[in-house]
Amino acid sequence: MEVIIQPTADAASHVAARIFARQIRTKPTSVLGLATGSTPLGLYRELVSMHERAALDFAKVTTFNLDEYVGLGPDHPQSYAHFMREHLFSKINIAPSGTRIPDGLTRDIAAHCADYEQAIRDAGGIDLQLLGLGTDGHIGFNEPSSSLGSRTRLKTLTERTIADNARFFSSPSEVPRHVITMGVGTIMEARHCVVLAFGEKKAGAVAATVEGPVTASVPSSALQLHARCTLIIDEGAAGALERADYYRWVYNNKPEWQRA
Ligand code: GLP
After folding, report:
1. Quick one: DSSP state of residue 92?
2. Which of 13, 34, 36, when mutated, tests ligand 1's pocket best, judged by the most ligand atoms within 8 Å of its CB?
3. Cβ(201) – ligand 1 distance below 6 Å
């Protein structure tokens, strides 16, 4: 795993934005996997700005979001469909038909999940997958104990994730208990994964992701087995890494052609 430590979340978002922009410019029909939460907001702001000022063109891009709350429709203010419209899709020139998010109101969750997997395959697979990290090491909504080979399916949130995400709702009791999420196995098939994590509260999850054992108890640790995974973090999130100095040294000594 490549670990890139930047002084601030803004600087880290900037590095991630360059990776996404290069992907889209190199392959205008790119298939992107997208994430929600507070972590990607800086990246999305940069992509909007690159669209407005540098003609970054999303017209032929296809996106698949990682997850959605069961029971929330796309117009619910806390749904991830609403989040994506508000922070990215309404501000760039992506075709609405090119954006896919699991349907939190589907009546047949199993069939919907199978369709979602098929749609990813039909699109040619995900070129570049964005991930945030839960404080417990979840990716998407794959909570600890998720099978590392899992596919898109229903998951039940842990009490910790409900507490973490309650800040977006008026009370913890309003946070849905169930979600639809791409599986760890689905995520692992993306050609390139970019993971963002910011702040001291993510330091434990970051260390477990990079330097802990590969275990279903920390689903993000499966990324150690991914052939191309780039973790971009700020100093706060790097605080518990044993080899932080080595990762900095590697980044500072990269051959020019390898730089993001
Ligand atoms: C939710 C999302 C994850 C995200 C995580 C972290 O649980 N399903 O994809 O990575 O929140 O959220 P934040 O970025 O707000 O810390």
Report:
1. S
2. 36
3. no
Q: Could you tell me the domains of the chain?
A: 2-253 (3.40.50.1360)
pLDDT tens by residue, 142-156: 999 999 999 999 999
Map tokens 């979340």 to a residue: 9
Element (H or E) spanning 192, and its range? Answer: strand 192-197
Name the nearest CA neighbour of 180 among 73, 72, 69: 69
Q: What is the pLDDT of residues 36-74, one digit of tens each?
A: 999 999 999 999 999 999 999 999 999 999 999 999 999
Annotated catalytic residues are 67, 136, 138, 143
Structure letter (DSSP) for residue 150:
-
Structure tokens at 176: 């849905």
Contact assessment for residue 137 and residue 205, using Cβ atoms and an 8 Å cutoff: yes
Asked if 127 and 193 count as a contact pair (C-beta separation under 8 A), the reply is: no
Looking at the chain, how many residues does it have?
260
Q: Which two tokens stand for residue 160?
A: 């910790």
Q: How far is the CA of 110 from the centre of ligand 1 (A)?
A: 23
The contacts of residue 22 (CB under 8 Å, 6+ apart) are 260
Q: State how far the Cα of 97 lies from the Cα of 58, in Å rounded to an integer.
A: 12
